[in-house]
Amino acid sequence: MRIEIARLTKTYKGDVHALDGVDLDVPTGMYGLLGSNGAGKTTLMRILVGLLKPTAGTVRVGGHDVTTPDGLLAVRRALGYLPQDLGVYPDLTARRFLDYIALLKGLDARDFRRRRVGELLEVVGLSDVADRRLKGFSGGMLRRVGIAQTLLADPRLLVVDEPTTGLDPEERIRFRTLLSQLAGDRTVLLSTHIVEDVAQTCRFLAVMTKGRVVFRGGVGELVAQADRRVWTVTTTGPEPARGTIVAALPEGAGMRYRVVAASRPDPYAEPAEPTLEDGYLALMEAGR
Hints:
The chain has 2 domains: 3-218, P-loop containing nucleotide triphosphate hydrolases (Rossmann fold, 3-Layer(aba) Sandwich); 227-286, no CATH class. The chain is built from 9 helices and 14 strands. The protein has helices at residues 41-48, 69-77, 94-104, 110-123, 139-150, 169-183, 195-199, 219-223, 276-286, and strands at residues 3-12, 16-26, 29-34, 56-61, 64-65, 79-82, 157-161, 187-192, 204-209, 212-218, 230-235, 244-251, 254-260, 270-271. The strands form 3 sheets. It has a 6-stranded mixed beta sheet with strand order 6-7-8-3-9-10, with helices on both faces.
């Protein structure tokens, strides 16, 4: 389900530009939207799902204009949305919560609804705890309940906003794997500030900063932003004075630094192969 965004602008009181002329074309499959907190990602997500109105510009999903009542209704029928903070009823079990949300989404046939809830609890790996109250669930388990509720009406578009923030490493890996498995013939738009989440799930992505899209393309193209700009420096002296330090590890009596810099940051610096994180940092450095 293709997303087409053109010249999208959102201005708040005080002339605060949350979005500043965003152009973006998102194809079917898994697509990453990467940027730091405050880059405008959540504002874009909220406009896309109809929770905010843009100041200017257009958003079309599957050919429907979400800024019109009829277009928004059509998009919502094909949409599953997992916000950064999902509100749940802590005293309900996972099964009862999903059954309730299914009713709200118009799944009125009782037998079908119960079968659908059971299927999705299995999909997200929560069948064995389906009758436990949500207040006893971990953060990762609640995120999986969140994904299950987005899938109740079998949507063609999934929008997930910062889904792995605060999860432990094991839950983060499990959640990323689940999202990748769900992509298939759906469009899954993953908004995150965590580079590794995009690196492990997406072939294509966009990068936002200060309300603008500053990069769109393949993961390899973003990695290439750091070609000949990544260095390692091993020293017992002060840290490199130039560039952005990506990592610092003790080595012997000194430290080994990984640095993104436009030129050799130290006379003894050695070139290194870039990663997606390096490409992202190089892009941010170039825009300053």
